[in-house]
Amino acid sequence: MLDLRPNCECCDRDLPPESMDAYICSFECTFCAGCRARLPGERCPNCGGELVRRPIRPAAKLAANPPSALRVVKPQGCAAVD
C-alpha cells in the first residue's frame, strides 16, 4: 500500500492525500508538480525513476488506511537539481 507521504521532498509543500499535484517514483519519493517540472527530465533526483501522478485514495478508505505522517525533506531542497 502506498505511504501517501504528506509533503514534497524538495520544497516541503503540504501534499494531502487528495492532492492532484503529488508525484511519486517507484520508491514513493514524493514531489509537488512545481518541483517535478524543475527536475532534469522530470525524473526522481534520488533514483532517476519516472515521476508519475500519485493516485488518490478514496476518502472512505483513509480512516482504515491513513496516509503517512512522516515528512521527508531534502536538506538542500531543489537547489541541487535546479
Automatic annotation (TrEMBL):
InterPro entries: DUF1272. It comes from the Bacteria. It comes from Azospirillum thiophilum. This is DUF1272 domain-containing protein.
